[in-house]
Amino acid sequence: GVAVQSQGTFNAMGTTIESNTVNGTQVYGGGVFVSRNGSVIASNVDIKLNQANGPEPGNGHSTGGGVAVHGGTFEAKDETSISSNTARYGGGVSVEYDRVAEEAAVPGTFNAESVTISGNDATKDGGGIWWVAADKISGEILGKITTNGNDWSPQADQQDNFSVDTNGSISTPADTGHPVQVLNNTAGTAGSAQMNVIFP
Q1: Is the pLDDT of residue 31 over 80?
Q2: Contact 99, 141 (CB under 8 A)
Q3: For the chain, which end, N or C, has fewer CB atoms within 10 Å of the first or last residue's CB respectively?
Q4: Taking CA 12 as the corner, what is the angle to CA 9 and CA 168, rounded to the nearest 5 degrees?
Q5: Is the overall model pTM greater than 0.70, yes or no?
Q6: Are 60 and 33 in contact (CB under 8 A)?
């Protein structure tokens, strides 16, 4: 797959990222892993059939079968597709922060401009998307998902298919005219098939 860290950049255009697997106790991003202020822009890219395999059951975890945004930025545009990927958390996409020792968290950012996230599976939470949004006590932002520069709203679990308009508003059922579609994903935990949002 693709791994970008430490302010690195990677631009993918009109290509396929397929059938990659990462294994271990703490694993991130079967297809794409972006961390520590790295940046990936995917334009008309097909990200499919990737796996992030962590222990199950166990103390470790695996996130982002297709894409793991771990304190970096991932932008999906021009009809990018993220499909048929698997992980423990966030079968399609995971969005969370990175932190070293006592430093401030580096939030993960997913700019979803034109993308379909479909047919992904999480053995636990967030079949389509697993999103660590903010610290529930301090309010510190840990992960952001935007469309057209607008934060997604509401920040809540989604079991049913949904779409997102250019204002960042989530619509259920999905509106085929919207630039973002999250469809037909599955998860082991009820209530979060399409998206799981957490506030640790």
Answers
A1: yes
A2: no
A3: C
A4: 85
A5: yes
A6: no
